[in-house]
Queue: 3 jobs
Job 1
Amino acid sequence: MKLMSGSDIYSAVEHIKTIVKQLTGDKADNFSNKAAGTLTNSTLEARKNIYDKAAGKESHLSIRNTKQKGWT
């Protein structure tokens, strides 16, 4: 049985765009701003790892941490 990587399964694409919105705390649910930030960062890191593994060895990771015009 051959172990397949993400690059063996998925078709090639030129780029992948993803948006992770910053979470905020909620005092009513006892969810602090620090916990919200930690969850947001963990989500972003998990997505980057998943995409990087699926893209294969010929990929190039580029990250832009800025809001574009019109984003709220």
Note: The mean pLDDT is 78.
Job 2
Amino acid sequence: MAKIAPDDPHYNIPRDAKGDPIFFILEPDIRRSYEHRHLACERGWSVTDDPAFIAEALIWSHLHRQPNPLWLTEAAVTVVLDRRTKTQANRVRERRVQWVRFTTVRDAKEQGLRWLQTRIEVAAKSITVLREKGVRGKRIEAVQHFVEDAELRAEKIRKRGWVTWEEARELAAEGLCRTEMKGEPDTMRKDYERVKRDLEAGRGGLYFLPKLPRKSLTEVLGAHD
């Protein structure tokens, strides 16, 4: 686009990558025509639920470089979400579980020793609290056994200087055992390797989590009036 002069009404409007204004200030006659077309689409959609009216309105907005009006945004969201299948929704949940397992194994590889040290500290405090409450027997013995095992594992890591992948998978399985991402160490291995392959192949978008609206824009905007 040619350079915009300072006296042009578009001079202070932000530009896109091509140097064009991100929206246009329409001349009165063009705006009247644009609004008339949009109104026709809105009325058509309201009485027919035909998504063709949404498609037409979106095209007019794009061609005129105008923000989508509220009705059009809500209509588009409605149509898009109605098109979403249970398979797609389930796939997102599965990918999310795989992603959390991947990141947990990855973080355990780097921070496993600190994780164990934190668990030891928390468990030791738990023993003190249990004793203060008068708890005795197997419950305290179980916590003590956990502390002893964690100390042995931590000592091996300290001597070696790093966390092995096997240890990382075990730590990840332990850390996720009370969540919907729980799984055996071998499950952690499989999902870690799956996600790693996808990332290396440029398929990281498989693990993006869409943020679905809980309320309509009208409800959200009304709450802030």
Note: Residues 6-83 form one domain.
Job 3
Amino acid sequence: MSDYTITQDGYTPVKCDKPLPCPFCGTEPKLAQLAHHMRSERIGRSRRFLQVEVCILASTSTLTADTFWFKCPKCYCTTGGHKDTAMEASKVWNRRVANSALSLTPPSRKSK
């Protein structure tokens, strides 16, 4: 089921499970992804350096993302957390859709 490939400008194509429609409005979700880079920053005037992770906002080269999540372009709901792979993000999104469908089922009432 992971034969689904998502391509976005500026990023390497990623494979994941096909995301299900939004549980609230039925719109097809979009993959959001970010790439980060580690750089060293000097601590004051000392010879010590601190490793700082920065987000790459624009680049002329194709980026390989390291943070993924799905979001709905219509109602703006998201998976609620960032994942390390697109596959993990799609599993969380699809699980959320399945769980919301279960929660919308009315409970059965026992007759007295």
Note: The first helix runs from residue 86 to 103.
